[in-house]
Amino acid sequence: MSKAAYIKYREGYKYQLAENYLLNINIRPEQEIRTEYLVLAPTGLLLIKKGYAWDGASGPTIDTKSCMRGSLVHDALYQLMRLGLIDTSNRDYADELMRKICIEDGMWSIRANVWCTFLDRFAGFAIRPSSEPPVLTAP
After folding, report:
1. Could you tell me if residue 114 is inside a domain?
2. Into how many domains does the chain fold?
3. Which domain holds residue 104?
4. 102 occurs within a structural domain
5. Confidence band, pLDDT 50/70/90 cuts, at residue 126
6. Residues 98, 134, 53, 96: what is their CA dihedral angle, to the nearest 10 degrees?
7. Mean pLDDT across the stretch 44-50?
8. Is residue 133 part of a domain?
9. Is there a cis peptide before residue 139, judged by omega within 30 degrees of 0?
10. Residue 31 is assigned to a structural domain of this protein
């Protein structure tokens, strides 16, 4: 085997989107933002592309169907903040949007409210560029 036979990967993801997902949001950049898996149009249309990976619910909680869509959108918006593509002032909006989506998807409002409170108090680190998972290599 040659020395060039290695892989590049990232850790920390549990789920991978099987189809594109579109959502209108209240973040409207001046110009279209485009990454490999995320597109945010000036109209507020967010496209999360097939193949996007995220980690589901974070913190002292469990993944349920009622948190999957909310955690997907929340992780995508936090990633755009970590990458410096949208301003970190959007953090409160991202947290509240996640809460709203989770309730729409059947989560008890008390659970969604507690989750949002924990995000407010403990998730500030997750929008820092240093929180973006590094690319690792193996072997």
Report:
1. yes
2. 1
3. 9-127
4. yes
5. confident
6. 0
7. 98
8. no
9. yes
10. yes
Paired tokens of 61: 């909680």
Asked whether 63 and 14 are in contact (CB, 8 A), the reply is yes
pLDDT tens per residue across span 2-29: 566 888 888 888 999 999 999 999 999 9
Residues in the chain: 139
CA distance 61 to 138: 31
Mean model confidence pLDDT for the chain:
91
DSSP character at residue 83:
T
Q: What is the pLDDT of residues 61-110, one digit of tens each?
A: 788 999 999 999 999 999 999 999 999 999 999 999 999 999 999 999 99
What's the CA gap between 55 and 132, in Å, rounded?
A: 13
Which residue intervals of the chain are DSSP H helices? 65-82, 91-104, 109-122
Helix/strand/coil percent split, the chain, to 5:
40, 15, 45
